TrEMBL record:
UniProt family annotation: Belongs to the amidase family.
InterPro entries per the UniProt record, alphabetical: Amidase (IPR000120), Amidase_CS (IPR020556), Amidase_dom (IPR023631), AS_sf (IPR036928)
Source species: Lentilactobacillus kisonensis DSM 19906 = JCM 15041
Listed Pfam families: Amidase (PF01425)
Span of domain Amidase: 27-200
Gene Ontology MF, one: catalytic activity
SUPFAM superfamilies, sorted: Amidase signature (AS) enzymes
Protein name from the UniProt record: Amidase
Length: 202
């Protein structure tokens, strides 16, 4: 794509453009795939890319008035499992593990009209506020690659801070959204506990 829509528009703006037939959601997914393929070697923000699956989801998308009209998103590599995709917890102990189900949060994202395109780098099991898992290597700050993007949602913050896309998944118990957002120059929202249900009984 000649235009970098994901770098210059919010997710809600992109939804309006799709619904007014000014852009196509499959082109947005392809734009993100191309960005990751060309720039991930600099930031090491993405650890798993699901190009074919995401493009198929975009092609088969049914617009029923969801908040988002088929906008690509990256999932955090911790606590945001997508069935049949890598689910390692950023640990070498689980390097070959694949998710056996789709996490409730990810289902909610999809139901809201978002399309998962890949998974982002995070520290092993999320135990640090820097993103330096031995399995995947260090993520890098989009403003200065000699520095960290923070953690544990470091890969997501690096991708958004690098203007790869407008939104990415995170989670936060002790600063894991807020810290990488402050390191990487992004807006990070930690919702009130219970606002985003972790399971069907919540």
């Amino acid at each position: 794509m000649a235009d970098n829509y994901l770098a210059t528009h919010s997710a809600t703006e992109l939804s309006k453009l799709i619904r007014s037939n000014q852009i196509d959601r499959t082109d947005l997914v392809q734009e993100l795939v191309e960005t990751i393929n060309s720039k991930n070697s600099q930031l090491n923000a993405v650890t798993s890319l699901w190009s074919d699956r995401a493009l198929k989801m975009a092609q088969q998308f049914r617009d029923t008035g969801q908040p988002f009209a088929g906008i690509p998103i990256l999932l955090k590599g911790l606590g945001q499992s997508f069935k049949d995709e890598p689910d390692t917890g950023s640990s070498a102990l689980l390097k070959d593990h694949k998710a056996t189900f789709t996490h409730n949060f990810v289902k909610a994202l999809i139901n809201a009209g978002l399309i998962p395109v890949g998974e982002t780098n995070a520290p092993e099991f999320g135990f640090k506020n820097v993103t330096d898992a031995m399995l995947y290597g260090d993520a890098h700050n989009p403003w200065n690659t000699d520095f960290q993007p923070g953690g544990s949602s470091g890969g997501s913050a690096a991708a958004v801070g690098g203007a790869w896309l407008p939104i990415a998944g995170g989670n936060d118990g002790g600063g894991s959204i807020r810290i990488p957002s402050s390191f990487s120059g992004t807006i990070g929202l930690k919702p009130t506990r219970g606002r985003v249900p972790a399971g069907p009984i919540e």
